Amino acid sequence: MAHIQHHQRAQTRSSLRTSAHATLHCLIGCTIGEVAGLILGVSLGLGIWLTIALAVFLAFVVGLSLAVLPIMRDQGIAYLAALKIVWLGEVISIAVMEFVMNAVDYMIGGIQAMSVFEPIFWIGIAAAIPAGFLAAWPVNHWLLSRHLKSCGH
């Protein structure tokens, strides 16, 4: 009995590590797109909602690209074929991450900054990134356990 419990704990730790890795991979893509969108939106004076929309759009573009490109390379398949493999898990993961990241950034006031040179702009991003990770980690864990997301990249 103790051997089975030890094996189950080891499996849980392994799956938590795998889901953390998948979440970190997603976070990298989301953060690149998100920060680029926020910098552009704030610098161009697009306003809060257009800035958020741009940041979310770019987060999806970069996040999906980082998920699709390794599959295209490893399996030698076209973009749309690779996208069909990952789209559901990635869209859910990115959506959760983006919702939380933008909510945290908005509440802190970073998105409302008049310039990227205001400290609050970067404070908002610095708080949003770990919040996005913490929100998406259990979601990715669940997606991986249901085989709705893969962590082969």
Brief sketch in words of this structure:
83% of the residues lie in helices and 0% in strands. The protein has helices spanning 2-43, 48-75, 79-108, 119-145. The N and C termini lie far apart (35 Å).
Lay out the secondary structure:
Blueprint: H1 2-43, H2 48-75, H3 79-108, H4 119-145
Helix pairs in contact: 1-2, 1-3, 1-4, 2-3, 3-4
Task: Record keyword descriptors for this entry.
mainly alpha; 4 helices; globular; 153 residues
Please tell me about this protein's structure.
This protein is an all-alpha fold. It has one domain. Helix content is 83%, strand content 0%. It has four helices and no strands. The protein has helices spanning 2-43, 48-75, 79-108, 119-145. The protein is globular and about 55 Å long.
Number of strands: 0
Give the oligomeric state: single chain
* Unreliable spans: none
Helix content: over 70%
Q: What structural class do helix, strand and pairing data support?
A: mainly alpha
What kind of sheet is the major sheet? none
Tally of distinct domains: 1
Report the radius of gyration as a whole number of Å: 17 Å
- Outline, from the CA principal axes? globular
Distance between termini?
A: 35 Å
Question: What is the tally of helical segments?
Answer: 4
Overall pLDDT, averaged?
A: 90
**Beta-strand level of the residues, as a percent range?**
under 5%
Give me the strand/helix succession.
HHHH
